[in-house]
Amino acid sequence: MRLNPLVSSQRLMLALATTMLAPAAAMAATAAPAANLRAQDVAVLAASCANCHGPDGRSTGGIPTLRGLPEQHLLQRLQAFKAGAAPDATVMTRLAKGYDDEQLKALAAWFSKKGK
């Protein structure tokens, strides 16, 4: 029995689409809400901050140190960056938009406790 080339091509496209979308669907279904972030999850989020703010938020240059600052101060700054309300911000207004509110709270807590 010979298959119609159009049907074969449609089946191939469907199989490819299913294969490509399955990981995204699985991640969405199993993604934990930010409120349930484990310490290692927050550490992974905070690792991207090291590019500018230094390892563990301890800056070695002109970028502000985050480590050990009061949690409420850090959270207010992160929220201001996300809202675009920090006039002294540079790239942080764009970066903060990539985090949800619970992630910002977790990052503020993480950096404030690193100095203790």
TrEMBL record:
Keywords: Electron transport, Heme, Iron, Metal-binding, Signal, Transport. SUPFAM superfamilies: Cytochrome c. It comes from the Bacteria. Gene3D superfamilies: Cytochrome c-like domain. InterPro entries: Cyt_c-like_dom, Cyt_c-like_dom_sf, Cytochrome_c_Oxidase_Subunit. Residues 36-115 form the Cytochrome c domain. GO terms for molecular function: electron transfer activity; heme binding; metal ion binding. Residues 1-28 form the signal peptide. This is Cytochrome c domain-containing protein. It comes from Comamonas testosteroni.
